[in-house]
Specification:
Elements lengths: L8 H14 L20 E5 L4 H9 L4 E6 L3 H15 L4 E3 L2 H5 L6 E4 L3 H13 L3 E4 L7 H14 L3 E3 L10 H10 L6 E7 L20 H5 L40 H5 L1 H11 L9 E8 L4 E2 L2 E2 L10 E8 L3 E6 L5 E6 L3 E4 L4 E2 L1 H4 L10 H6 L7 H11 L7 H20 L3 E4 L4 E2 L3 H4 L15
Parallel strand pairs: 1-2, 1-4, 2-3, 4-5, 5-6, 7-12
Antiparallel strand pairs: 7-13, 8-11, 8-16, 9-10, 11-12, 13-14, 14-15, 16-17
Helix pairs in contact: 5-6, 6-14, 10-14
């Protein structure tokens, strides 16, 4: 992926346009990303800037120039524009409406870190506007949204990277884990357990005035129109500077209207790696069983009966029956990470460690040369954005493509549907629909609020 030739932005745009017009993906080619020469760098914009939006931007400034930011919160927008200028010495333009970013011809790609319920609309419209896309995980709010994104990627020929950065970063621990499995170090896989943490419910959260600078209607966007809610207690640490209990900044992950709780948050990371390791990235489970679960509010017909408290699961154990009848357990209990168990042994991996006897045995019996690179599909990048930019130049889809992401995320979406309805689901991974359950199939899509439909 790394070559000695330079690659100007003019070359980059010509290559991109030619490949898109032809409707094909070119073979892998490498570029020097011109870290010291601005005219050799692609031009990016970030849409949605709080927390993860700045994180992915900050990691990407070594590879790309940022010409614009968009955020519906004026305070967040101004803070991040200042941070970018302090870091790079360059000013970017700021917008409340992301569509003004998409209208600009000088922007090659957008990085999307808005809340999950906005991902599909912005992603689709960005691709139709001729932009490549890096979008945070989880990519979608529903399974049908994933199908739409796949259709538009194919239609436009755009490059699309999902922000499941465990595929690239974390000192390549997850790649080594998959290499261990492929090399037969634990024999045949018998069980995979994904620990993704539990969550907490909330007190009753009152409706209050919208904070100054926040366009609440646009923050809600495709989601139903509801009051802004918050309690005065403030969050500390990561996500600080916002209310601890709210239906907006940071805490939106606890509401099914905007996200999928821990199942779609940490699940989008660990279920992704587990599915990859099982070789199931082009299929999926046939059965999803909610072994146990706790919801923080009462539900009826799959919907919460109150609107003033968090409503995503706090505890759960889900069994997904994967190809070969291998059980994948998704649980809120135990350590955060993935436990692989096979006929010859087991090991555990997370962002901090790769541990177990098969790992210890590597000291005297290392993996074959190139085993990790074979998992990755070539020389391994150190940065997820670097892989994205390489893909933009080659017009080959990156390591976290939309098809494999959507396949694994279907497991997470189905788990949430099973919890909401309180029953086992039979899934047809070929037709991508729930078998014999019209009520459950109704949860595969959601209507957008009037005025916030996707512009196709």
């Amino acid at each position: 992926m790394t070559s000695k030739r330079t690659f100007s932005r003019r070359d980059f745009l010509q290559t991109t346009s030619a490949a898109t017009a032809a409707g094909v993906f070119m073979g892998t080619s490498a570029i020097t990303r011109g870290q010291d020469s601005p005219n050799e760098r692609p031009v990016f914009a970030t849409i949605g800037l709080r927390n993860q939006g700045w994180t992915i931007t900050n990691k990407s400034t070594q590879f790309a120039d940022f010409a614009a930011f968009a955020d519906v919160d004026a305070t967040v927008l101004e803070e991040n524009l200042k941070k970018l200028e302090e870091k790079t010495g360059k000013k970017a333009d700021g917008y409340k409406d992301y569509r003004e970013v998409l209208d600009r011809d000088d922007i090659d790609a957008v990085m999307i870190a808005a809340p999950d319920h906005w991902h599909t609309k912005i992603s689709v419209e960005a691709m139709l506007a001729g932009k490549d896309v890096y979008c945070e995980k989880p990519l979608t709010l529903t399974i049908d949204e994933g199908k739409l994104i796949e259709k538009v990627v194919k239609q436009t020929g755009r490059v699309f990277q999902v922000g499941t950065m465990q595929r690239t970063e974390c000192e390549h621990r997850f790649l080594k884990a998959i290499a261990l499995i492929r090399d037969g170090r634990i024999g045949d896989i018998r069980k995979v357990t994904c620990g993704i943490n539990g969550a907490t419910g909330s007190p009753v959260i009152p409706a209050i005035d919208v904070p100054e600078g926040l366009d609440w209607d646009m923050w809600l966007g495709p989601a139903p129109k509801v009051p802004y809610r918050a309690l005065p207690e403030m969050r500390e640490g990561y996500g600080g500077g916002v209310p601890l209990y709210t239906n907006c900044h940071y805490a939106w992950r606890n509401w099914y209207e905007y996200s999928g709780g821990q199942m779609n948050d940490w699940g989008a990371h660990h279920v992704d790696i587990a599915t990859w390791a099982l070789g199931a990235t082009d299929t999926g489970p046939n059965t999803i069983t909610p072994v146990s679960y706790s919801l923080p509010v009462d539900y009826k017909d799959g919907y919460p009966t109150v609107s003033d408290q968090y409503n995503s699961p706090t505890k759960f154990e889900i069994r997904a029956n994967m190809p070969g009848d291998i059980p994948m357990i998704i649980t809120s209990e135990g350590d955060n990470g993935i436990l692989f168990e096979g006929t010859k042994g087991r090991f555990f991996v997370n962002r901090g460690k790769l541990a177990g006897k098969p790992v210890e045995d590597l000291e005297n019996n290392p993996l074959p040369e190139g085993a990790v690179e074979e998992v990755y599909g070539g020389p391994v990048s150190q940065n997820h954005t670097e892989n994205f930019i390489d893909a933009m130049a080659s017009r080959k889809q990156p390591i976290s493509d939309v098809w494999t992401h959507n396949r694994m995320l279907e497991t997470c979406h189905l788990a949430n549907i099973a919890i909401r309805l309180g029953r086992e689901l039979k899934w047809d991974p070929t037709k991508r629909e729930i078998i014999g359950d019209d009520e459950a199939n109704a949860f595969l899509s959601r209507e957008s609020r009037d005025g916030y439909e996707i512009n196709m």
